[in-house]
Amino acid sequence: MAQSSVTLFGIVDAGVTYAKTSGGDSVYGLTNSGNATSRLGFRGVEDLGGGLKAGFWLEGAIQNDSGTGAGGGAAGPGFEFKRRSTVSLMGNFGEVRLGRELTAAYNTVSAYDVFGQVGIGQHFGFGVNGSPFRVSNMVSYYTPGMSGFKAGINYGFGETAGDSSFGRYIGGSVGYDNGPLSVGLGLEQQNDPSAAFDKEQSLGLGASYNFGVVKLAGLVRQQRNTPVGGGDKWKMNSASLGVTAPVGAAGEVRAAYNYYDVKSVDGKAHQLSLGYVHNLSKRTALYGTYAFLKNQKSETFSVSANGLGIATPAGGKNQNALTVGIRHAF
Amino acid sequence: MAQSSVTLFGIVDAGVTYAKTSGGDSVYGLTNSGNATSRLGFRGVEDLGGGLKAGFWLEGAIQNDSGTGAGGGAAGPGFEFKRRSTVSLMGNFGEVRLGRELTAAYNTVSAYDVFGQVGIGQHFGFGVNGSPFRVSNMVSYYTPGMSGFKAGINYGFGETAGDSSFGRYIGGSVGYDNGPLSVGLGLEQQNDPSAAFDKEQSLGLGASYNFGVVKLAGLVRQQRNTPVGGGDKWKMNSASLGVTAPVGAAGEVRAAYNYYDVKSVDGKAHQLSLGYVHNLSKRTALYGTYAFLKNQKSETFSVSANGLGIATPAGGKNQNALTVGIRHAF
Amino acid sequence: MAQSSVTLFGIVDAGVTYAKTSGGDSVYGLTNSGNATSRLGFRGVEDLGGGLKAGFWLEGAIQNDSGTGAGGGAAGPGFEFKRRSTVSLMGNFGEVRLGRELTAAYNTVSAYDVFGQVGIGQHFGFGVNGSPFRVSNMVSYYTPGMSGFKAGINYGFGETAGDSSFGRYIGGSVGYDNGPLSVGLGLEQQNDPSAAFDKEQSLGLGASYNFGVVKLAGLVRQQRNTPVGGGDKWKMNSASLGVTAPVGAAGEVRAAYNYYDVKSVDGKAHQLSLGYVHNLSKRTALYGTYAFLKNQKSETFSVSANGLGIATPAGGKNQNALTVGIRHAF
């Protein structure tokens, strides 16, 4: 009755990146995770019988340019399971998960970034000003698939003595995946994301349609932060419109336009991303990505590459960046 | 001749804990290791022929609420093999081990805590004021089982130039395990455990008897610390009396009374722990634990839960705590 | 077509070390990596078809006396893949690797140290004053074996904005391995290795000949550092001459004489190393190593053992050190 499996898995993705900021210096370097985030993980599922299953998932990021461990996005002081560390109970009712992982709100909407939230070409509108990618101390519930519909909800304890709402995260998503059409909506509220803000709230919507020859994908997102002590909310609108298309038996081209508008800053930012992935196998690919970022007026958005310091441009300055690399999964 | 095996193993245990200190704040949160310590490890044994075997054991703790690594009990800066990192030579003579691990003195006596030295229900008399759970830089010897008798001795180098006794740990245990009866005795001396003490010494005794319907277990322990510069020794007596009983095919109830008496503090502490474990399989269980801690007069003992800050009560104040969780081993 | 393998591998090596510095204190302790560096790693190769292969290699050091992780040589804050973290593409053309690893210059020449660059008996002339063992952010190319000839080249990005030469590493090696004869040459230039130096350059040559009854091995190396602001170069010459011989079916004796001469210091250092390795299997061995280090005049070279602080001797003072241990590979 108790069948089980434990899987060791991971990705090592490395590339060479060049970045140039208008009016600034250029920089070259070896970068990580240009096509998929470098990681090492251990996961398993146990069949408990009667349709019930238990599972665990431990996964940490790796900065393979230097060999250091890295937490969820930020560099960590040693290998840690900060990408995901959960234990689950699964059944016909869906899945209950305890631990740290990507939020459903982020995960569901960011899935419509055709650059997969990695490298210089990705949409940079997530994770800004206290909106989390991942949350610790969460109790989560995910529905089973129901004719293509699915939903998830995350509750993250603030763990503050005497004030259970301080630092609390609540978010969720609903999605529909059926045939060529996919739609997802995510919303969240993070209390006390920083000393400056009482509250961070975001709402995102994404969709894709696979025409076969090309697949179209897009997302829009709005984030509002409530300042401590009142006053105008900090607001950001961002959007991404992308397309992917197979080229021959092993290739895929990608292109995306990304838009960022922080209301308190004069000017918007526009990003154009172009990419090509050449699959050597299901697990291994060569890739190239080019990104152009245009800041208007006072805006100072920046591309970023894992493992290389790319200076944030001065207000209104542009950036060009190029990565060529290899991704190997195991 | 050289048969061998390498095993990847671990536990992910997560729960929701509520704790309330009299006259203080309550706190809620996601906690780890309520039923068994969350961990990841690698171990193996090689058959060298002629009855000789070599083995290794690398095991580190995981704080799965946040994904960080954690050393032996305390939070670490990244995943480390601080639970155990040893290499062994085994044969008819027993086992010689080099490295870091639980001491025999702690391991043998703490085995009679029916809450398994984890979670809010555990006996908190170990690991206080310089008495170690684990020691680094050890050379250890464990006898083979001899008609139920077994013994172990640990020598931990102080590694201090010019003074080989400074920081040195010496401890050992003897035990007897046969049929329903189990008895264990452990004693230790840790030199220079802190700036305040020249020496820490402890003696513990535990026993259990399995009546079938219920199993009774208990332990008593005394610790004496010699202050630097002389004066009265710091002394603590502690004890635990517990019972476990199977409930149906898959359940087990646990109850324990724990007693703590620090001689230099006016007043004692009493702890009552109640628990239920429901096994979904050999590897997976749901559990609930309730603990009530009563401090008398000036005493300030506290329950603790891995991954949640529970404030130490003011003198004489009580605590109530409850954890409900899931443990999954792989 | 896509055959693949993922291998979990490692070594746990522990011993007891005694060291005594003339005119100073003696120290005892449990040490790591006396015969081979303790480590844990994950590696794999995927056959891509058409003679092409992809591979990854993630490997970190372990300080098993205390369970901490350790980077390339130095203690790290948690387990990290600092020994090697690379992704490779391999074919008839050789191998292209991206990431962090040992440099070809170091690896090729140090291979002729009969004590394998571990423990108190090793040649200590490498890794001094900014000459790296390992380099991050590298693009490397290794030739296939060609009638015993092989070569490698490493380019390590400095990753400095506006100055692509700052911090850059360039090095390479050529080698010949055929029958009893093996020869290797390595050279390197590390820009800006420290605040004191603009440049570090080294050239090393090693060779060995296997006579069957004994194997003779030796190396010579010169390093030159260019000071910031000009002035005389810092120079070091070092050499090693060693011999290994099988003893019976399972044993091997080793002996080496090492020589160190830092030009700016009055006096040279001489080191005599003796060792015996008794193989219990291919993976497991008992070993003993003795080292005597003689500093002349003002020279202050020192033996070192992983996991034990051995004081650097005062000028002209000698050291004696002894390690007895066990190495177990998996």
Automatic annotation (TrEMBL), chains A, B, C:
Keyword Ion transport belongs to the record: yes
Subunit structure and binding partners: Homotrimer.
Topology with respect to the bilayer: Multi-pass membrane protein
Boundaries of every Porin domain copy: 1-297
Cell location: Cell outer membrane
Record-linked PANTHER family: MAJOR OUTER MEMBRANE PROTEIN P.IA, PROTEIN YDDL-RELATED
Main subcellular location: membrane
Keyword Coiled coil tagged: no
Keywords: Cell outer membrane, Ion transport, Membrane, Porin, Signal, Transmembrane, Transmembrane beta strand, Transport
Gene3D superfamilies referenced in this protein's UniProt entry, alphabetically: Porin
Organism: Comamonas odontotermitis
Name used for this protein in its record: Porin
